[in-house]
Amino acid sequence: MIGAGPAGYPAAIRAAQNGLKVVCVDAWVNRDGGSALGGTCLNAGCIPSKALLESSELLHRARSEFAAHGITASGIVLDLAVMQKRRASIVRNMTGGIGSLFKAAGVTAIFGRGRLLPGRRVEVTRHDGSRSELDARHVVLASGSEPTELKSARFDHEYIVDSWDALEFDSVPGKLCVIGAGVIGLELGSVWRRLGAEVVVLEALENFLAIADQQLAGEAARHFRKQGLDIRLGAKVTGASVANGAVSVSYSDRAGAQTLTADKLIVAVGRRPYTTDLYAPGTGVELDQRGFIQVDDQCRTGADGVWAVGDCVRGPMLAHKGKEEGIAVADLIAGRYAHVNYDVIPSVIYTAPEIAWVGQTEEQVRAAGTDCKIGVFPFAASGRARAMEAAVGFVKILAARDSDTILGVHIIGPMAGELIAEATLAMEFQASAEDLQRTIHAHPTLAEALHEAALAVDKRAIDSINR
Ligand SMILES: Cc1cc2nc3c(=O)[nH]c(=O)nc-3n(C[C@H](O)[C@H](O)[C@H](O)COP(=O)(O)OP(=O)(O)OC[C@H]3O[C@@H](n4cnc5c(N)ncnc54)[C@H](O)[C@@H]3O)c2cc1C
User: Fold this and answer.
1) What dihedral do alpha carbons 32, 157, 50, 85 form, nearest 10°?
2) Atom 38 (ligand 1): residue with closest C-alpha?
3) Which value, in Å, is the radius of gyration of the alpha carbons in the chain?
4) How many Å apart are CA 345 and CA 318, to the nearest integer?
5) Which of 92, 304, 308, 441 has a beta carbon 3.0–4.6 Å from 141's, enabling a disulfide?
6) So which residues are the catalytic ones?
7) Which ligand 1 atom sits closest to the C-alpha of 275?
8) Which numbered atom of ligand 1 lies nearest the CA of 319?
């Protein structure tokens, strides 16, 4: 196994569960120089970002929401050092946990770089410089991805920063500019906005959240702007320069050339597969035009016995997608059945309100020419959401008009990232809207919004007016 991120480490554990002798080599080095398992997700991605999103949301709610509950709180002060210490300790705990899981499963972890050589040999260079070679029956490449750099805004990691840098700021920037209104840009922009920064988000596309259902995207844009995120669409960055402790960003939009000055600039324009020095010539591993390792539907590369999973191969760059690929490959190697259903992969944006979806958007359904029924249920009509002071957003369900099969579920609102699990399970089992309608949901829960949206598909919602 090369790489111990969320694609590589589950593959290692499952392969060991399947009775194989497993070695997992990982090159990750944290900013303090220490090695750690868990890859981008645990060290510099999913987990630290969620820790800060939670803390910053609590601060925001304490300041803006307590009063509505009749709680008077005075002297609420941000201690960023403590907040960051908490983030770091969660990361340490989780990455250390993988070490314990490896030990329990009998996986040998090696901290260093792995390089595939012809004939399924792996050259391992440990962090102390010592080298060794391993012979393997199977090799799984799980080398992940890295932030995309813009030629017009090169990282200096102090003023022009990537997402990892932006998770470790030790003071709140007065003014923050984010390039890219994608998942990472919106999450990081939300964190620093809630902690007090003035935030401008520059997005080259004219459509906000083009990957999401556009009804949901429109609702999201409205909330984010209300929260003070200054989102500028159709804004193409042309340059960035640092002088006198500030970044000057130039961009062009419909109105022409613009500039703005910020204390920090986060470049969050996406990630690209990381395959630097991962394999020697003659191994049979090949990259596609976009730099992803070429694989078939079951993650086999062009080299016999060499597999690749996670962010370094095609498909959405999501931890849970990589995890399923890793587990599937470990089972295929053991001769078991395995399958990844790429049509049913949930996506979540952990902003407030949260955004989550699975399956097709309304735009995709219409483009495919499928006749569909749509049910929408607003959280404003949910007793639980009201009790939580979180009655914003809605659940939207798309179902095929002929078969009633659920084609897509889109949620913006409280705990959307948790609620989407029910929709994902339903779609995995090819459920119909009627199946959800006939499933009893506990009252009062947020999940009832899914039940009601399913009823609304057939204009039979009880707790909201059917349109
Ligand atoms: C700020 C941020 C927030 C995110 N939030 C989410 C989220 O909420 N949910 C979600 O699903 N996804 C999220 N992601 C994406 C998620 O982190 C990735 O999809 C996931 O980490 C990919 O897993 P992976 O195992 O393929 O790669 P990685 O996690 O990148 O792991 C690859 C590992 O391989 C190692 N490696 C590379 N080359 C070698 C080599 N030659 N030898 C040895 N080791 C090597 C690397 O050091 C690394 O440890 C987020 C990403 C970022 C940046």
Assistant:
1) 40
2) 143
3) 23
4) 9
5) 308
6) 443
7) 38
8) 11
Distance 170 CA to ligand 1 centre (A): 23
Decide: 197 in ligand 1 pocket, CB within 6 A: no
Q: What is the pLDDT along the chain (467 residues), one digit of tens a residue?
A: 999 999 999 999 999 999 999 999 999 999 899 999 999 999 999 999 999 999 999 999 999 999 999 999 999 999 999 999 999 999 999 999 999 999 999 999 999 999 999 999 999 999 999 999 999 999 999 999 999 999 999 999 999 999 999 999 999 999 999 999 999 999 999 999 999 999 999 999 999 999 999 999 999 999 999 999 999 999 999 999 999 999 999 999 999 999 999 999 999 999 999 999 999 999 999 999 999 999 999 999 999 999 999 999 999 999 999 999 999 999 999 999 999 999 999 999 999 999 999 999 999 999 999 999 999 999 999 999 999 999 999 999 999 999 999 999 999 999 999 999 999 999 999 999 999 999 999 999 999 999 999 999 999 999 999 98
Strand partners, 153: 150
3-state secondary structure 11-61: HHHHHHHCCCCCEEEECCECCCCCECCCHHHHHHCHHHHHHHHHHHHHHHH
Parallel/antiparallel/unpaired status of strands 306-308 and 160-161: unpaired
**Distance in Å, CA 41 to ligand 1 centroid:** 5
Contact 402, 432 (CB under 8 A): no
In order of 138, 303, 322, the CA distances from 14 in angstroms are 14, 22, 13
Q: Which of 2, 13, 41, 164 to mutate to test the pocket of ligand 1 (most atoms within 8 A of CB)?
A: 41
* Residue whose pair of structure tokens reads 């290692």 in the numeric block: 12
- Please, which residues have CB within 8 angstroms of residue 359's CB and are 6 or more apart in sequence? 343, 344, 398, 406, 407, 408, 409, 423, 427
Instruction: Write down the residue that tokens 């703005």 correspond to.
Output: 260
2 CB less than 6 Å from ligand 1?
Answer: yes
Beta-bridge mates of residue 135: 121
In 3D, which of 238, 240, 236, 258 has the Cα closest to residue 248? 240
**Which token pair is 408?**
């897509």
Pairing of strands 108-117, 23-26: parallel
